[in-house]
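Q: What structure does this chain adopt?
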Amino acid sequence: MVVDTPLACLKVITRQSLRDSRGSFCRLFCEGELASAGWTKPVVQINHSYTRNRGTVRGLHFQRPPKTEMKLVSCIRGEVWDVAVDIRIGSPTFLHWHAVHLSKENELAFLIPEGFAHGFQALTDDVELIYCHSAPYSSSHEGGLSALDKNLDIQWPLPVGELSFRDAGYPSVASAFEGASL
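A:
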């Protein structure tokens, strides 16, 4: 089932898991089902991330045109606070954020459209995420925002633990950030 969020085009996907005495089965991606949510491109890259420590924040990352991407983020181990920030030029919700609690147990996924920055905080140790991407990663089109930017005022549920050197160096939106065109 597709659930709208307060930010246009940003969706939460609820999944149905089939369970029996052997365990469970859950479909992570179905082109036909996700088309109604706005996923209209092929999956060209699937990434897996592992985050060791509770409180660690990764992000906020995005790809600039012409390499913008959609992401479908699923948590397959542990729990995260997954955040998307609207960076679409001219959007009525420009620089607004929305977060979703993703976990192995709740089987939710976050469908993040082009024009959003993305990051998450590990709520447990040993978190694993699977990301489906609509475009391949391009280092020359990579961008990011500071996850600790007071102008964004993201309410991280835990004190922020580790940040990578790269993520800690991203600018705040007060540093003349104009957004991303699509």
